[in-house]
TrEMBL record:
<comment type="similarity">
    <text>Belongs to the mannose-6-phosphate isomerase type 1 family.</text>
</comment>
<feature type="domain" description="Mannose-6-phosphate isomerase cupin">
    <location>
        <begin position="238"/>
        <end position="316"/>
    </location>
</feature>
<dbReference type="Pfam" id="PF21621">
    <property type="entry name" value="MPI_cupin_dom"/>
</dbReference>
<feature type="domain" description="Phosphomannose isomerase type I catalytic">
    <location>
        <begin position="7"/>
        <end position="104"/>
    </location>
</feature>
<protein>
    <recommendedName>
        <fullName>Mannose-6-phosphate isomerase</fullName>
        <ecNumber>5.3.1.8</ecNumber>
    </recommendedName>
</protein>
<dbReference type="InterPro" id="IPR049071">
    <property type="entry name" value="MPI_cupin_dom"/>
</dbReference>
<keyword id="KW-0479">Metal-binding</keyword>
<dbReference type="Pfam" id="PF20511">
    <property type="entry name" value="PMI_typeI_cat"/>
</dbReference>
<dbReference type="InterPro" id="IPR051804">
    <property type="entry name" value="Carb_Metab_Reg_Kinase/Isom"/>
</dbReference>
<dbReference type="InterPro" id="IPR014628">
    <property type="entry name" value="Man6P_isomerase_Firm_short"/>
</dbReference>
<dbReference type="GO" id="GO:0004476">
    <property type="term" value="F:mannose-6-phosphate isomerase activity"/>
</dbReference>
<dbReference type="InterPro" id="IPR011051">
    <property type="entry name" value="RmlC_Cupin_sf"/>
</dbReference>
<keyword id="KW-0413">Isomerase</keyword>
<dbReference type="InterPro" id="IPR046457">
    <property type="entry name" value="PMI_typeI_cat"/>
</dbReference>
<dbReference type="InterPro" id="IPR001250">
    <property type="entry name" value="Man6P_Isoase-1"/>
</dbReference>
<keyword id="KW-0862">Zinc</keyword>
<dbReference type="InterPro" id="IPR014710">
    <property type="entry name" value="RmlC-like_jellyroll"/>
</dbReference>
Amino acid sequence: MYKGPIFLEPVFKERIWGGTKLQAEYGYNISNELTGECWGISGHQHGPSRIRNGELEGWPLDRAWNEHRQLFGNLEGSEYPLLVKILDAQTDLSVQVHPNDEYALEKENYSFGKTECWYVISCEEGAQLVYGHHAESESEFAAMVEQGEWKKLLRQVSIQPGDFFYVPSGTIHAIGAGTMILETQQSSDITYRVYDYDRRDADGQLRDLHINQSIAVATYPHRDPVIEQTEAKVQDLTIKQLVEDTYFTVYLWKLNGTAELVQEFSFLQVSVIEGRGTLYADGKEYPFVKGDHYILPATMDEYRLEGDAEMVVSHVTI
């Protein structure tokens, strides 16, 4: 079973801040002009990807996880652990924060909190995002929120394509308008909104805020996490490690030619963000193009990549 890649059909999510770039840039068949999220690799109950090749074609990823755990190195856990998205932010996302595992389990009865990371695929000139805050304590943070001192509280960071941000649980953050990012995260959909610009939904209602939860889970004071990035070369493939964290390790792969590799992980998640190529495994050819998402299962062995492509690749950290 599966000596080659497992290709996945993405799930799309309407968002108040979304747009149409997922169709324009990746050719995805979206049905809504406010499509904000492509869940490219997902076993989450709110939107599992479906397998589109091989013996399990048509299966949702969470079912494959539960019934064919050998594909994932027989890892333990009742939930597929990671979620990979592409986000199209036509306008600003709400300022938000996510809980850690302990808080999520205690308050939300869910196994995972939400630590995530972002690779900036593209952005408009002058684009910014919120990454952290300027309060030194919980009480100062709460006072500034109550008084609506958002410009003083929120830390704005200018961005450009190729930037990378590691966003541990507890980090106040918001992706800014005109930005497309690839997000790798724990498989969790728990979000606490701190501020939403007094924006109204399609029914004219202000969206819910979660001030008490946000104050409870935010980190004080904010400090940028220190991450070590390394780079290696395997023939014509450059592998840049973007982050190695408790939950996931994420890489940027740049392929310009041919590379022979061995699948040594419980599974590898691959999202093609530019270009095209072919994966050769077990005597078969598997073409891939920009916008494809696939998993290299534990049941694979040696494989070869050929082409000109950029991919964001990840696996669980053990």
